[in-house]
Amino acid sequence: MTRREEIEELFAELWQVPRFAGSRHGFRPNVDCFHTDDPHALTVIVELPGVEPSSIRVAAGERALIIAGERRRPHVAGRVYQQMEIEYGPFQRQITLAEDVDPEQATATYERGILTVQLPIAPKPALRESVSIEVRVSR
Fold it and tell me: Residue 75: its pLDDT value, please?
């Protein structure tokens, strides 16, 4: 993650403080990410209440996970709002992973508004024996 992305992430998190909640624009789901030993994996949990599972897109690379979708405002005929606090709209979260994962073995499940993504840790390449390197004299 670049410095600019880190700063943007910090400012985005700042707007989640309740006193600034009215100033935010769009839905930004909360994310937890943790490491487990059995199975050896990274697990990412995303709060997505009110999001249709069919609108969720998940893409994984060796060190990144992107989760995108949209929480749509329900259509109610003749509504006049007295109070509006629930955020709707498209969202995208990019999570930088601390370890290389095997994206082809990843799984995702959605239950009661919670998306759980399991990303198995990629096996580390076998260490090779030391290799001698010839030193040449340059002329």
Answer: 84
Question: What whole-number distance in Å separates Cα of residue 71 and Cα of residue 29?
Answer: 10
Q: Give the C-alpha distances (Å, rounded to integers) separating 31 from 28, 35, 59, 66, 125.
A: 9, 14, 15, 11, 30
- Quick one: DSSP state of residue 62? S
Half-sphere exposure of 21 (CA within 13 A, CB side): 9
State pTM to two decimals. 0.71
Instruction: Answer yes or no: are the C-beta atoms of 101 and 62 closer than 8 Å.
Output: yes
From residue 79, alpha-carbon distances to 51, 75, 87 in Å are 21, 9, 16
Residue 23 pLDDT exceeds 70: no
Bridge partners of residue 42, in order along the sequence: 35, 119
SS3 115: strand
pLDDT of 19 reads: 45
Quickly list DSSP for 70-105: EEPPPP-TT---S------EEEEEEEE-SS-B-GGG
Are the C-beta atoms of 81 and 59 separated by less than 8 Å?
no
